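WARN retry 2 of 3 for item q-0093 after timeout on previous attempt; input resubmitted unchanged.
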Amino acid sequence: MEPVQLTRSEKRSPVERIEDGLARARAAIRRAIQTRNYISGKEETFIPRGVVYRNPYAFHQKNCGWLKWQAPYVSSLKPDLYKHFIRALCNTNTSERFQPIRDISIPEINIPSDKLSPPQLDQPPNKRPILAFFVDDAHGYVRSVLFNYWKEKDAEIQVFEGLPRNRNYTKLMSDNKFCLCSIGYEVASPRIVEAIVVGCVPMIIDDHYSLPFSDVLDWSKFWLIITSDKILEIKKILKAIPTETYLRMQKRVKQVQRHFVINRSAKPYNMLHMILHSLWMRCINVVAVLI
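OK item q-0093 returned
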């Protein structure tokens, strides 16, 4: 019996086959960027467009690629690579060795017992009479500073330690132009997602938070961030924002809402989709280096 002749493809190791598939994906993404085209070969329910996306063509093509991809069994191929695993975390504190290039920032979210996402009680800008709002427990240094300066001291910057009696939390958020999202003991906060789904522009008070999906979303177009030493200036900062700028930011918050909700059944570009996209993107960029 003559020996079986293996093709070049069959001779490749599992690692080589994985890297070959990733190389093809990288090439497709480069073509999408260069040609500025949305090419998928299938019917689309949503196509990302606008300035909230760092590169909508690359984002769209990456989405097409990861849906066809199967995760490599890195641990079985090379156990010594365990220390290089991609981590997916909510508490993405860059001062605690979180690496945005390799690791994944997952949005923190409070899921109601009978729903998959926070209530979407959205209000138009002209129905938002309050400038800014925050309510939660006093834990962590930053919140202690926030409460010291603003707790129940200003009608336009409404800060409470605990929800006031007979007030609805979601309704309060939807009455505000800006929602303060202060870190506590950890840098992540579900208020960012809660603010976005009610159309409230997030103002994040943080020093070391790596934002979710920031490799795709240009957060500077629809949010504000201040460091803890600027807490006293919150009202001054918000008052200085022109109405036209706020309206643009609020419109963009609404544009990214689909990326911060969970659906049953899952929908393209929702939160779970975005998390998997983040994993796929890191595999494209990181696996080649690790192997």
